[in-house]
User: Fold RHS repeat-associated core domain-containing protein from Duncaniella dubosii.
Amino acid sequence: MESNGIVYVNTNRVMTDGHRDNSVGERKLIWDEENRLLAVDDNGFVSNYWYDADGERTVKTSGESDQVYVNGVFSGGSTNTAKFSLYVSPYLVANQGGRYTKHIYAGSQRIVSKVGDFASYGSDPRRIEYAGANTDGLSVDYKSKYAAQQQVIKDNYKFFDVPYNGTDNDNYADGEGFCCNDGSMEAAVAEARKSQTRAVSRSFKDPDNYENLQFFYHSDHLGSSSFITNLDGEVVQHIEYVPFGEVFIEERNNVWNTPYLFNAKEFDEETGMYYYGARYYDPRLSLWMSTDPMEEISPDISSYTFCHNNPINRVDPLGLTDYFNENGAYIQTIDDQKDVRVMVFITKKDKDKAALAVSEGKCMAVPSREVVKTMKETYDLTEKTGNEHGFRVGKNGTISPIVEGEGDVVNDAHWKDAIDALVNVGDRVSYDVHSHPQLIFHEGDSKLLYNNLPSQTDIDNTVGDSPNVVLGYKMVQLPNNHNTIGGSPNVTVEKRIRFYNRTGALNSDNYKFSSFERAVDKIHKWKPKTK
Assistant:
């Protein structure tokens, strides 16, 4: 990697006779300080990317060049923008030639794409405003924006040492592809061209029957597009994949083919990578192209590994980890391709304290509502029998049956049924949940009036890769409401939950199980703000 941010990926191959196969070359990538891909050079084919303040991609362009060399010396050529995509929102993407695609979702799942073009935007295309006109009293200098964008493209070509011989084309800044007239000569020319286009279009189709190119997605268990059907229910595209996302089989007609393939993510055909919102994924290498910014959450897993090397059962649909405190209050979201909600064992909404707690392992993926329900059942059985009970949760979310111990012990023989239940479905233990039935807990010579503290035996026998859980109690003395001297103290017993790993307890003993239950429910109901 060079100081200017260029990363070289050598794709040359050495043949068996020792000679280098020059038919394949090298790929160069430019990244910024936030690990966002800015440009890619594949043997002179340059693609450029722009992002908004939240890190979401807003524009993608791909260039093509025709270059002439005489006796090995460059003598001239031309450079053009072959393709571009403008990501207006998750619901609308505009492309070259005045084409656009509307997306319709059911929740977070894309179910329909409607393809159209600005020239036939309904019976009244004047609804599209001309770029540069005043909108709500705001005037945007699109020519300056275009010039700045064009300069970025030229700079990237220079970084890659690829000749740039393009003629600046400000059609989009001048209103090409738009229709509303602001009185300028450019807008008048654009409107005249559009009138001509509409006249021709009306000779061949009904202008009111727009967006009849509608395509419906039929996905597999990973959300990957398997079959695409049209408005008449006919299959227009069929795709099958190898486990890590490369296309294995593709059948399609020439009407339209979706770029949203594996995991329903956009496939950039110019680079062969999928865009996941936070990082780019190369299915040929089965690796992410940049590191995980929150790798300390899973230090045993490589930052570049895709879905823990289990792409058949796991998926990274959003690539976002949302962090919450013990009260279920939202702290922040990190782009790290894990798509999980994490509870941090702190009570404040402090990002710095949260980061420190995460680095110390004082956090865990928020349990499912089913896990919390099983915790309540474990409490009930413990109070009914007086014996310790427990269950185990698998890495894939499997919940084992509740097992019963003897007194305050659940030994290996008791745990066998719980472990077998996970193994039989191909899952592995992620963490242990068990109760402490006795209201007086002995730790060495100390006699404590509560028993939600993990014992040293618990700590030494921590299982899985996530904090283990003690379902215990705490005796709490309430203020006396009588005025006489003496008398019995007013005492209540509260259910308290404690998390621990091999370093010991991770949260305070003041965390009520009822508070934990409300926090989990609140976190599962939480929805990110839409843009």
